[in-house]
Amino acid sequence: MPFANSHINKEECYMIKPLGKNIVLEKEEKKETFINGIYLPEDEKSKSHIGKIIAISTEVSKDEAFEAKINNKVLYREYAGTEIEFNNKKLVLISNEDILGVIEE
């Protein structure tokens, strides 16, 4: 089992194991934006800084002060993390310190 020492959403087994104090988020994409029937391309609309936690490093999972869990939707800092595309998903590898809060639905 490749993720025995990390906490990861097994249903979405991505093959990226975060190390140190890092977390992997699946980035939430904003829906298409239209203003008065005119489509605004991606670079014209503000980027979303919301993601779903799909993997947490062992070090972060042992930190009792870190309250977010797998599958939580979180808000993260604007310029934080490294965006990557993996298995046709947009992911963000981010430090736990850049998570600002959990979004309760």
From TrEMBL:
Keyword Chaperone in annotation: yes
Residues in the signal sequence: none
Keyword Zinc (UniProt): no
Pfam short name (any one): Cpn10
Keywords for the protein's UniProt record, in alphabetical order: Chaperone
GO MF entries: ATP binding; metal ion binding; protein folding chaperone; protein-folding chaperone binding; unfolded protein binding
UniProt-listed InterPro entries: Chaperonin_GroES, Chaperonin_GroES_sf, GroES-like_sf
Function: Together with the chaperonin GroEL, plays an essential role in assisting protein folding. The GroEL-GroES system forms a nano-cage that allows encapsulation of the non-native substrate proteins and provides a physical environment optimized to promote and accelerate protein folding. GroES binds to the apical surface of the GroEL ring, thereby capping the opening of the GroEL channel.
Oligomer status and interactors: Heptamer of 7 subunits arranged in a ring.
Family statement drawn from the similarity comment of this UniProt entry: Belongs to the GroES chaperonin family.
PANTHER family: 10 KDA HEAT SHOCK PROTEIN, CO-CHAPERONIN GROES
Stated name of the protein: 10 kDa chaperonin
Organism the protein comes from: Spiroplasma citri
Organism lineage string: Bacteria, Bacillati, Mycoplasmatota, Mollicutes, Entomoplasmatales
